[in-house]
Amino acid sequence: MEGTLWYVLTGTRGGRNRIRILQAVDERPRNANQLAEDLELDYKTVRHHLDVLVDNDIVDKSGDDYGAVYLPSDRVRANWETVEEIFERVE
User: What stretches of 1-91 adopt beta strand conformation (E)?
Assistant: First the structure.
């Protein structure tokens, strides 16, 4: 999991936005529209990053389609020290 976190959050072009999304859903679970608004990002961009985060078991999706709410996965919670280290290095 640790290697996946580093790669998905720092080893790709969209890493910075993925970090922002993960920080936001850690603060308060939100849907894609709320994330786009709160982070001032395009909705399609947010959807793309959420798909990557879900596919890599970094965030979980609760609910269906438009109203689905996202939150950090249990697996990420278990590795939160690594997540915080990534946050510190990127900021």
Answer: 30-31, 59-62, 69-72
AA letter at 49:
H
The answer to whether residues 30 and 69 touch, using CB atoms and an 8 Å cutoff, is: yes
Whole-angstrom Cα distance, residue 64 to residue 70? 11
User: For residue 28, which of 77, 78, 71, 76 has the smallest C-alpha distance?
Assistant: 71
Q: In what order do the strands lie in the sheet with 59-62?
A: 30-31, 69-72, 59-62
Dump pLDDT digits (tens) for 53-86. 999 999 999 988 778 999 999 999 999 999 999 8
* Paired sense of beta strands 69-72 and 59-62, if any: antiparallel
The two tokens of residue 40 are: 């001032």
Write out the DSSP string of 65-86: GGG-EEEE-HHHHHTHHHHHHH
